[in-house]
Amino acid sequence: MPTENPSYLLKEQYRDASNLSARAQLHARFSTSRVGWFRWLFDRFELPPDARVLELGCGPAWLWWENRDRIAPSWDVTLTDFSPGMLDAARENLSGLQWPIRFQCVDAQTIPFPDASQDAVFAHFMLYHVPDRQRALAEIARVLKPTGCLYAATNGEHNLLELDELVASVAPELSSGAVFVHGQEFTLENGPYQLLGHFSDVRACWYDDALLVTEVEPLLAYVLSGLVGARLSEEQLARLRRTVAARIAEQGSLRIRKSIGVFEARLPKR
Q1: 8 Å CB contact between 35 and 205
Q2: Domains along the chain?
Q3: Number of Cβ atoms within 10 Å of the Cβ of 1
Q4: Which of 19, 73, 89, 228 could cross-link 178 (Cys pair, CB 3.0–4.6 Å)?
Q5: What one-character-per-residue DSSP string does 12-40 give?
Q6: Mean pLDDT throughout 26-37?
Q7: Given a cut of 70, is residue 215 above it in pLDDT?
Q8: Which residues of 211-222 are buried (b: 16+ CB within 10 A; e: fewer)?
Q9: pTM of the model
């Protein structure tokens, strides 16, 4: 299969948790927020005591691991991902929990759950990957109970803009924003218009954060974990290393703005 095929590239990017982990390390080490992302995100959830929760694109299940002290044993939780490698990582990370969580390989465009069966569906940083997003949103609306809620975290249009500009300065021939494995298909700015096709009450909550990077190599590891990193030449990578080192030496740190948040979307009242 041609390596430029988008579907192939996506599967390779998320074959396991290694690329995602490289990116997460940068945020974990250099974030300026006093409240960690996963704790902040969990604070947004409003779930009944006996909630049935379905997560699409759970990845390594860091959300649940970081909030393991807040999970109600009475919840019925199913974590899904399109990548078997991600599910393996999720199982391993949550293997010490005292209550059962189910794991299942699922395509968000064809969710194998009954109508009106879920109190909440989580779809964090994954809807921009779905080829037929409206079909996936219709499926999410179908499996939600009338009182249920979709929680969908995503990026804003200018998330990590300074990092994109740094890469573009050494590799202008590469497409803008290509540090990431997604484009502008589903952002905090354009997401509401897409969600309103299936939900009537859509709210966005933004997370206040930035990166203050004081080391070169973690930033390079982030870049190399994305699709553009594999396309940088040795000379371009060396230039990027020198540029980042010079900025940090001159300013003490490299400030990179973040733009992320979560949508809360509810079904139309019947």
Answers
A1: no
A2: 6-157+182-209+259-266 (3.40.50.150)
A3: 9
A4: 228
A5: HHTSSSHHHHHHHHHHHHHB--SS-HHHH
A6: 95
A7: yes
A8: bebebbebbbbb
A9: 0.91
